[in-house]
Design a protein that fits this description.
By secondary structure, this protein is mostly helical. It has helices spanning 8-33, 38-45, 49-56, 64-74, 78-85, 95-102, 108-129. The protein folds into two domains: 8-85, lambda repressor-like DNA-binding domains (434 Repressor (Amino-terminal Domain)), CATH 1.10.260.40; 95-135. Helices cover 64% and strands 0% of the residues. The longest helix has 26 residues, at 8-33. The chain starts with 7 loop residues before the first helix and ends in a 13-residue tail after the last helix. The relative contact order is 0.09.
């Protein structure tokens, strides 16, 4: 059991302590780059100033709902915060996937359909070329 194998429960428990700090740091960085004060973000996100401060310092782990409110306040995709918080797995794919996920006009359903179509094309091309295109974030142009 003490091996480096990936036991689901052991893996999750080992990461829980770092997740609060990681997401807090990420939110703080995003807030700084957006040039928004803690108080402003608190008002925009509808989250109390002390609670937001505790999240940024890694003392509290926000729920998915709170992360969504914070993302809206920062004007970034909730998915970015979910990935950072360990709620969603990182989806590889490069700038196209990032652009689709960040688009505020598309619904979550529309984003997922676009990503599914994109991934199906990548798998189809990988199979026809006999190579592992899925591991490479950049695909051939043209």
């Amino acid at each position: 059991m003490g091996s480096t194998g990936e036991s689901g429960i052991d893996q999750v428990t080992g990461k829980v302590a770092d997740l609060g700090r990681d997401i807090g740091e990420y939110i703080k960085q995003q807030r700084a780059s957006a040039k928004i004060s803690l108080r402003q973000l608190s008002k925009l996100a509808g989250v109390s100033n002390p609670y937001l401060s505790q999240i940024e310092r890694g003392l509290r782990r926000p729920s998915a709902e709170i992360l969504q409110q914070i993302a809206k306040g920062l004007r970034i995709s909730a998915e970015a915060l979910y990935v950072q918080a360990g709620i969603l797995d990182v989806v590889e794919g490069g700038p196209l996937v990032d652009a689709i996920r960040a688009d505020e006009v598309l619904t979550e359903r529309q984003k997922q359909v676009l990503l599914d179509v994109y991934e199906s094309f990548r798998r189809e091309n990988a199979a026809s070329q006999g190579s592992d295109v899925e591991r490479a974030p950049e695909s051939q142009e043209g």
